[in-house]
Design brief:
five-stranded mixed β-sheet; about 575 residues; alpha+beta; five-stranded antiparallel β-sheet; 17 helices
């Protein structure tokens, strides 16, 4: 068959067209598939993203719960430091265990695992919390690092940790009653810790400005070295005399700063549960006691300052005094006429009561009020007890008060009043925070004349050299002081075999710098045939404290001086 040129050309065209059409369809199909695949991937990614958003929204409630909890517990506190910069309290980070019950997969497994690591937890309480389906619950606060690691290794879903600020006290119980303690949420409970919360820290925390933020340290007036000495000597004395409690105070008479204050038994603020035990109360500012013959110091100062009694006057102490159905006698009576210095160093109840009567009952009440002994003492510590006063301030009450019976005050009040008697006559409210002498001069109140103060320093020193305070003397430091032996009251009656002894002292007596007060509760005789009066136990405690602490306070001994009391001439 013969093909013409037109036929050949037509066939070629027909053969090319189908190929061109097929090629065109294949390219379009490929593009469509690419678009479909891209759309599918976009859809899948959108679905995954949507699911992630949904999951995030589902976790939002518990997440916000523990974030809120974190904010409430992580509030920082400033370091507390002593007058020399030694750290008394600081924050450390600790882990606390929480649960998100909605995310717990197996409650039984979680309870079983937690009880193995933390057997102190109550299994029923833990199970009830995990079954609650709440967004957030606490399980245990302040875990040790070992406990946190063990719980973490359990790998339990819905169980986690929050970082909290936990208060740490490097000195343990050494200054517990001054520094105070905090609760599990790092809020102050007692001592300076509570004071700074009330002054400014609590407001910062309420406004959220104290959360996990470093703050300037708060300095206190206490000297940690002296504080250790006082506490150590109290512990030794309690052991030596088999006593049930003891108090020691060192007070700067020129500024009113509390350099040391210890009350035993004390507590370790790292173990806050101890602070709740009644026997561990702060007896120095939070307990009131009859101080016994120490009060003769105030009666003598009152009589001399009134101008109605002079240092060279004498009073008849030959016979007991009968008043209100009571008989007032002397413990070791001299049964003769006694001069004012003799009444002081022999601690005559009869002579002291007669000096009070010569001055006047109204004058006594006014004078003790002037010294701050009839009202509650104000300090930075919240633990300040109110004095117990007689229901009727009549003649009998006034006579017994003159030698320390019938009125109960805190040891800190006693030390503060004594500081005014020896520092020239200026009463300074005590402070646990630093205070300069210039600041003290602006705050001081003149309560007795400088001349009366000079005579009281003479009597203090005389009592150590020739009276009941001999065992407090420390060579080179011219210690002066007054003993007090008070019978305790049980069932409304004085008990002769239970005493609370004290020694109120100051040094150096030519220019006093510090008052030192010791109190020991129910001391026993150190050995058979030896008495248990204040001169035998409270006075030696003061001597031991001064011997060790005076060099730390910058008071150097001056040997060859002060062997006789300050000269008084009229």
């Amino acid at each position: 068959m013969t093909m013409t040129a037109e036929t050949t050309s037509f066939l070629q065209v027909r053969q090319r067209r189908p190929r061109a059409t097929v090629g065109s369809i294949s390219s379009g199909a490929v593009k469509s598939r690419v678009y479909v695949a891209m759309a599918a991937f976009v859809f899948v990614y959108l679905a995954i993203g949507g699911r992630l958003v949904l999951l995030a929204q589902m976790d939002e409630a518990p997440s916000s719960a523990w974030i809120s909890a974190q904010d409430s517990v992580a509030a920082s506190r400033p370091d507390l430091i002593d007058r020399n910069g030694e750290i008394l309290a600081t924050d450390i980070k600790t882990a606390s265990l929480y649960a998100e019950p909605r995310r717990i997969l197996d409650v039984d497994e979680a309870v079983e695992g937690l009880m193995k690591v933390l057997p102190e937890l109550d299994a029923d309480v833990v199970r009830r919390r995990l079954d609650s389906r709440a967004g957030f619950v606490w399980l245990k606060r302040e875990l040790s690092p070992g406990q946190a690691d063990a719980v973490h290794d359990l790998g339990l879903p819905g169980i986690g940790f929050l970082s909290e600020s936990q208060r740490f006290y490097p000195g343990g119980p050494t200054a517990g009653h001054i520094v105070g303690s905090v609760n599990v949420d790092n809020a102050g409970l007692t001592g300076i810790e509570k004071y700074i919360d009330g002054e400014w820290l609590g407001d910062l925390q309420d406004l959220g400005f104290a959360s996990d933020r470093s703050m300037e340290p708060v300095q206190v007036a206490m000297d940690l070295r002296v504080q250790h000495v006082v506490r150590d000597e109290l512990m030794k004395a309690m052991d030596r005399y088999k006593a049930i409690a003891a108090v020691g105070i060192v007070l700067d008479v020129k500024t009113g700063e509390v350099v040391a204050m210890s009350s035993l038994p004390d507590y370790d603020p790292n173990n806050r549960s101890q602070a709740l035990e009644q026997d561990r109360l702060n007896r120095a500012t939070g307990g009131v006691f009859e101080m016994g013959s120490v009060f003769k110091t105030f009666t003598t100062a009152m009589a001399l300052d009134s101008g109605k009694v002079g240092i060279n006057d004498s009073f008849d102490a030959t016979r007991p005094i009968r008043a209100g159905g009571r008989t007032i006698t002397d413990f070791h009576g001299k049964n003769r006429i006694l001069s004012v210095p003799e009444i002081f160093i022999y601690s005559s109840n009869i002579g002291t009561a007669k000096m009070m009567l010569a001055t006047g009952i109204d004058k006594q009440q006014e004078f003790l009020g002037r010294l701050g002994l009839t009202s509650r003492l104000q300090t930075e510590l919240p633990e300040n007890a109110r004095p117990l006063l007689p229901p009727k301030w009549n003649e009998l009450a006034a006579m017994t008060i003159s030698f320390g019976h019938g009125i109960s005050v805190t040891p800190m009040q006693t030390a503060v009043a004594a500081a005014a008697l020896v520092n020239g006559g200026t009463l300074l409210q005590p402070t646990f925070l630093p205070r300069s002498q210039e600041e003290a001069k602006k705050l001081g109140k003149q309560v007795i004349s400088p001349e009366t103060s000079r005579i009281m320093r003479y009597l203090f020193r005389l009592n150590v050299l020739r009276g009941s305070g001999r065992r407090s003397d420390v060579p080179g430091y011219t210690v002066g002081g007054k003993t007090g032996t008070a019978e305790k009251i049980e069932n409304g009656r004085y008990v002769s075999d239970k005493r609370r002894n004290s020694f109120l002292s100051a040094f150096p007596m030519d220019d006093p710098r510090y008052v030192v007060l010791t109190v020991i509760d129910e001391p026993k005789p150190e050995r058979s045939g030896v008495g248990a009066t204040a001169g035998m136990n409270a006075a030696p405690m003061v001597g031991a404290i001064i011997r060790r602490a005076a060099p730390m306070l910058g008071v150097m001994p001056r040997f060859g001086e002060g062997e006789e009391p300050i000269e008084i001439s009229y």
